[in-house]
Specification:
151 residues, alpha+beta
């Protein structure tokens, strides 16, 4: 009797686990929207594929920051790319969220990879009634911070 119960429990657990794995070709609904996306990852939430567009791009000494906007999630993030062969300078990309009066609400950052062609992205900031911009800065005084216009 215990063997039967054990096998039944194992099979039941496997069936439940299989139901949680999305099948290839199925759509994945984003798990957040607006300010509910604050400090969450675009890939983990499904926002990375929710009608994403690049709204602003800024380049600073061959380090690029893109303001990415997912209209399906009403959320933004910064994607950074290192297009420089010089990896001596530590650089960071930022995304900033502003209210309608121009007050900075929140900022997130991500380190630009050292390798040429390397890219990474920050967590998101969300809400359609806010303004966003991206910036690139360097540790030290080698190059001044550069920022995009707000979107």
């Amino acid at each position: 009797m215990n063997k039967i119960l054990s096998r039944t429990a194992t099979i039941s657990a496997a069936v439940v686990a299989m139901g949680m794995i999305p099948l290839a070709g199925t759509s994945f609904a984003a798990s957040c929207s607006g300010a509910g996306c604050d400090n969450q990852g675009p890939r983990a939430t499904g926002c990375e594929t929710a009608s994403v567009s690049t709204q602003r791009t800024i380049d600073n000494n061959s380090r690029k920051a893109e303001l990415r906007w997912a209209s399906g999630c009403s959320a933004a993030w910064v994607r950074v790319t290192n297009n420089s062969s010089n990896s001596l300078y530590n650089s960071y990309g930022y995304i900033e969220k502003y209210d309608s009066a121009g007050k900075l609400i929140r900022s997130l950052s991500i380190r630009v990879p050292d390798t040429t062609g390397g890219s990474d992205w920050s967590n998101m900031l969300g809400g359609a009634s806010y303004y966003y911009r991206v910036c690139i800065s360097f540790v030290g005084n080698e190059y001044p911070m550069k920022c995009s216009t707000k979107f």
